[in-house]
Amino acid sequence: MSAINTLAKTTSIKHPEQPVGVFDSGVGGLSVLAHIRQHLPGEQLIYFADSGFAPYGEKSDEVLIERSLAVAEFLRTQHIKALVIACNTATAAAVATLRLRYPELIIIGMEPGLKPAALHSVSKVVGVLATKSTLQSQKFSQLRDQLSVETGVNFIAQACIGLVNQIEKAELHSAETLQLVRRYVAPLLAQGADTLVLGCTHYPFIAHLIRQVVAENQPDAKLDAVRLIDTGEAVARRLHKLLEQQGLLNPQHTTSVLNAYTTGSTSSQEHALQHMLGLRADQYQLSALA
Q1: Residues designated as active site
Q2: Is 0.70 surpassed by the pTM of this model?
């Protein structure tokens, strides 16, 4: 804990060569990191997995704000020029506090994906898969209510208890994970949802299971009859735009070694980096923090 809470001694002057910090409660943020690596190949990236305190979705806002500030302070010691909160739950709880605390930083959080979902839905029924904390947040409630009035879309919220734990354990194909997906997705389809929002950055890693459940429940439908909304790419595009606007886009065009940190198991994080992000051992450097 002492390593994370070390106060940063940084300057407000930023340079293109400085890294971008990305953090999540665990491995889920790697889905966002993959988009960032694709859209900004020249950026030096630091990934922080707070796996020792996962899952975030079952913790109070006060705890999430405390953890987010601690992680941000550590990343500032690495002289980051931008911070990406690659976690819907942490974004909902802490993004406003982080922006007030660090006005000199570009800070980008996750959006729930409700706007693109409303645009794509023909049935006007959208299912939202997310953690309990995200769905109970004021940020989510306000956006849902506003869009419902503006678009006439019925957003059906589904808290996916236990799903993040399964993904953190790398059980991406297990019968238990599939059973949970069936439990959460099937009722949304039964209510007419033709669009599903992946409201947690962990969920893109089980998109294949979600599509399997869709096929089970709609065997005669086309493969793309139900659309999955993943906002990771939108975050990468937003980061690119803000870095470019502030003259902080790194002109290099070679992807550098990823620096990764975890407060959990290094073996689990290594497995995630190799099998979920597709990195070779020489493409990352992993360190553990207490």
Answers
A1: 87, 200
A2: yes
Q: Looking at residue 8, what is its pLDDT? A: 40
In tens, the pLDDT along 111-154 reads: 889 999 999 999 999 999 999 999 999 989 999 999 999 999 99
Look at residue 10 in the predicted model and tell me its pLDDT: 44
In the predicted model, residues of the chain with pLDDT beneath 50 are 1-2, 4-11
pLDDT in tens, 92-116: 999 999 999 999 999 999 988 999 9
State the helix-helix crossing angle for 88-101 and 138-151, rounded to 10 degrees: 110
Give one DSSP letter per residue of the chain, joined into a string: -HHHHPPP---S---TTS-EEEEESSSTTHHHHHHHHHH-TT--EEEEE-GGG--GGGS-HHHHHHHHHHHHHHHHHTT-SEEEE--HHHHHHHHHHHHHH-TTSEEE----SHHHHHHH-SSSEEEEEE-HHHHHSHHHHHHHHHHHHHH--EEEEEE-TTHHHHHHTT-SS-HHHHHHHHHHHHHHHHTT--EEEE-STTGGGGHHHHHHHHHHH-TTS-TTSSEEE--HHHHHHHHHHHHHHTT------SPPPEEEEESS-HHHHHHHHHHTS---GGGEEEEE--
Q: Encoding tokens for residue 174?
A: 């297990």
CB 164 within 8 A of CB 26: yes
Please tell me the total number of residues recorded for the chain in this structure: 290
Q: Which of 270, 232, 268, 267 is nearest to 22 (CA)?
A: 232
